[in-house]
Amino acid sequence: VHPNVSQGCQGGCATCSDYNGCLSCKPRLFFVLERIGMKQIGVCLSSCPSGYYGTRYPDINKCAKCKADCDTCFTRNFCTKCKSGFYLNSGKCLEKCPDGLEANNHTMECTSIVHCEASEWSPWSPCTKKGKTCGFKRGNEVRVREIVQHPSTRGNPCPATSESRKCIVQRKRCQKEGKGKKSREEKRKKSSKDENKETRQESKGRAARRQNREQRENNNKTQPKKRKAPNKEQDLSPVDTAH
């Protein structure tokens, strides 16, 4: 055994030295060199740290460093996450996204530009004025639509979701609350009123007829009686009969 190689290594090392740490790793572990000041020490890890990617060989599994602008990578030329200030696009880290794409500051990726999409217009609402559908001739009607796709930062903005226009309707009276009950009550009152009117008219008629009858009777009492014409045969005296 080499004098710099220690026996009984710790931390997954297959072989190690007191000065350089791990020299080789146990199966399936990755060997990586960590810099401490001016010194590099070998360590064995189950997965490669940030900024490294793993490669497997028959004799050793190693962690290789990603490009400087890449935080994590699949291979040296294919980044999976960029460092701050860079945007990921097709495995590369860019300071500015290409044309047709926009920077997503949440995912730090270049994504496609999404434009706003709206649904079809709804049918026009009934003609109203101040929330009512009766008691007026000119009002307004509206229609609405929904946003089905919100735009991205550089996408086309959303259009208006409501429209209003003037409308003309045939004027009609508003039905008040409880109109049915009120109408029946009004009809009952009107019927009672008509009956009372007829009763008063009949009473007036009877009173007028009674008054006329009484007046005729009083007139008959005040007028002198007509004398009956004398019978000619009764007026003849006995003297005249003798002649």
How do you describe this structure in short?
Keywords: Disulfide bond, Glycoprotein, Heparin-binding, Repeat, Secreted, Sensory transduction, Signal, Wnt signaling pathway. This protein is α+β, with helices and mostly antiparallel strands.
Q: How does this model look, in words?
A:
The protein is of the alpha+beta class and 243 residues long. Among the domains are: 7-65, Hormone Receptor, Insulin-like Growth Factor Receptor 1, Chain A, domain 2 (Hormone Receptor, Insulin-like Growth Factor Receptor 1, Chain A domain 2, Ribbon); 77-112, no CATH class; 117-168, TSP-1 type 1 repeat. Helices cover 22% and strands 33% of the residues. The protein contains three helices and 17 strands. A hairpin with a 4-residue loop joins strand 12 (101-104) and strand 13. It is rod-shaped and about 165 Å long. The N and C termini lie far apart (213 Å).
Please render the helix and strand layout as text:
Elements: E1 5-6, E2 13-17, E3 21-25, E4 30-36, E5 39-45, E6 52-56, E7 61-65, E8 70-75, E9 78-82, E10 87-89, E11 92-94, E12 101-104, E13 109-112, E14 117-118, E15 138-144, E16 147-149, E17 162-168, H1 179-222, H2 232-235, H3 238-242
- Please estimate the helix content: 10-25%
**Biggest sheet descriptor:** 3 strands, antiparallel
Q: Mind telling me the CATH class of one domain?
A: Mainly Beta
Strand content: 25-35%
N-to-C CA distance = 213 Å
Q: What is CATH's topology name of one domain?
A: Hormone Receptor, Insulin-like Growth Factor Receptor 1, Chain A domain 2
The order of strands across the largest sheet is: 1-2-3
CATH architecture of one domain: Ribbon
Rg on CA atoms, Å: 59 Å
Structural class: alpha+beta
Overall mean pLDDT score? 81
Low-pLDDT sequence parts: 234-243
Q: What's the tally of helices?
A: 3
Shape: rod-shaped
GO molecular function: heparin binding; signaling receptor binding
Keywords: Disulfide bond, Glycoprotein, Heparin-binding, Repeat, Secreted, Sensory transduction, Signal, Wnt signaling pathway
Organism: Todus mexicanus (Puerto Rican tody)
InterPro entries: Furin_repeat, Growth_fac_rcpt_cys_sf, R-spondin, Rspo_Fu-CRD_dom, TSP1_rpt, TSP1_rpt_sf, TSP1_spondin_dom
